[in-house]
Hints:
By secondary structure, chain A is mostly helical. Chain A has helices spanning about 15-55, 60-65, 70-75, 80-115, 120-130, 135-150, 160-185, 185-195, 200-230, 230-235, 255-265, 270-305.
Amino acid sequence: MTSISAPPVRIALPTSPQLQRRKTIGAIWQAVFIAATVFAALVLGTLLVRIFVQGVGALDTDLFTQRFISNAAIERGEAGYLTGIVSSLWLVLIAALFSIPVGIGAAIYLEEYAPDNWFTRVVQINVSNLSGVPSVVYGLLGLGVLVSFFGNDFLGRSLWAGGITLGLLILPVIIIASQEALRAVPLSLRQGAFALGATPWQVTWHHVLPAAMSGVLTGTILSISRALGETAPVLVAGAALFVSNVPTSPGATYSPLPIQVFDALGRPQAEAKEFAAAGIIVMMTLLIALNLIAIILRERASRRVRW
Amino acid sequence: MAATASDPGTRINVQTRSAGDQPTLNAPIITLRDVTISYGSFDAVVGVSCDIPEHQITAMIGPSGCGKSTVLRSINRMNDLVQGARVKGKIEYHGVDINSPSIDPVEVRKRIGMVFQKPNPFPKSISENITWGAQINGFKGNKKELVESTLRRAALWDEVKDKLDQSGLSLSGGQQQRLCIARTLAVNPDVILMDEPCSALDPISTLRIEELMRDLAKQYTIVVVTHNMQQAARVSDQTIFYSLSEKRQGMLIEASPTQQLFTKPRDQRTEDYITGRFG
Ligand SMILES: Nc1ncnc2c1ncn2[C@@H]1O[C@H](COP(=O)(O)OP(=O)(O)OP(=O)(O)O)[C@@H](O)[C@H]1O
Ligand SMILES: [Mg+2]
């Protein structure tokens, strides 16, 4: 029997040397991680500042309203990226309209429906590998399949070919990011819904997708940003260095923003460097605007789920 | 009590509600005949045959890993969701073989609902938790009335009536479990399967759910898995005892009216288990 009236024993709680060591190790790692974060932020910050300093002189409304980039226009300070901005927006729109539904659909099939057999595994491995293929290869695919499909004339070098090429490029990334998001939805949520007599589609549509939406959209945002900045694949797939008209339909020829910036950089005039830097600022603004839209959509979607 | 003087174990005090009455079991609504369930090449439970009486409570007890959850999940085809799970033998609901290819598991689960061990409300409002299941099953009536009447039946209304718009996950564990029971009731099933519904709950919440189960048994057939033998004795009309064979396969040892199983078990292994002499 233990004695109830035993006096409490006072003990000291000194930090043992062992614990001290563990704490030191913890502190060192924390410092490493902070350093990594600071380094990343510094590199990015330096780049941004440099570009801003270089391009600030050329920042004016002409950038957004003028459609000509020629040596003369650059010298007179009257060149603008209008065709590039509109081309890039078209490209992203076509790529998104193609790859978001297909990508999320494929992810839903693979995660929620596909049986675990060799076919599924082959598809899965291929998707993972595709996300690592150099982007210029997608350009060759676009050239070989899409451009010849649309015909190697006017339509073949159109926004259709470029947009779908970019869509294919980001498709595996969207599939993989969406799969991760779907996989993170707890099984118990699905079970609860199934146990009420829901069909697989009702479970997916009403519970799994809303719960995964935030993750799905994050992956989508990242890949759309990537599509906006890609140069190589669209160059191969038929983008022009210069187009004189603002593309007004997906059948038009086009010259996306990053290609125009690249083109400007190669010009001899002193003003060209400044103009190119301003082009990068325009591109960043576009990127931030697109991301903002996507983030607002994401917040809306996640408000429907109330964890 | 039938305990012998030399009995070193402790007997469960069976406070059967039908004290004095001869325990009778109703006609079965579900029958299992020679049911073997395997995961891949491993037979988890072998040769289970038993009847589930209508409008009564059946408790399933037995050591961990003997396949209680496995059997329970096979009754409403939730095992379909488990990779590699296979069911052999015959499970009949109202005389219909629920595993026949012409039967849609969705139809089975509409009629045979399930409450899980860990409360799993939907990440939606309390009202939506109730209405969702009803709506997908074609409910067209007044949602407010449905929410109130269902929550009342689940003995939860008074605690949540002022916060129906809050997330179901904002409730306490016991309340969440009653919400899950309520959401099952809203679909109006015939049978409710419960897998250790009280294992995460405090004694008071447990008691409330037990009372609720007794109440629900007037209208529904209930099968409950529990590790709490007192609970089995308190709430159930029939108790099924499972154990493990030498090959670590689950098997049904005894299915008897609860009072009989706890006072005069037919099998020595049941006797050992309920008196706490099990391995
Ligand atoms: N999804 C699964 N995949 C493979 N084996 C499983 C799966 N679920 C259960 N098993 C196995 O089947 C056997 C029975 O498991 P089950 O969960 O039915 O036991 P239980 O009686 O409910 O146990 P407990 O009381 O601990 O909940 C165990 O050996 C377990 O390892
Ligand atoms: Mg279990």
